[in-house]
Amino acid sequence: MEESGEQQKVKMDLARILLTLPNTKREKIIFVIIMVITFMIYFGPLCFSAIHPVKAILLALVPAFTTSWGCLVLMRSFFRKKDFCK
After folding, report:
1. Model confidence, pTM
2. Interhelix angle for 25-47 vs 53-79, to 10°?
3. Has residue 31 been placed in a domain?
């Protein structure tokens, strides 16, 4: 029996955490929701500027994608440690 105060150190496979696509239904839904919300946040100020609409979409898409991917990686490292251990 292990004591409750004892902690184990586990090596995480960072490459798998960072490069694995969302593979569960829950991850896909969370990824899309965060991406849509952050896209609206970044696109809102750009749509009223003098920037071409395609350029504004691309400018808003890049930070929205990276922010949502970062949130997904963070949630994986917190909640799915067992799946990404070495």
Report:
1. 0.73
2. 150
3. yes
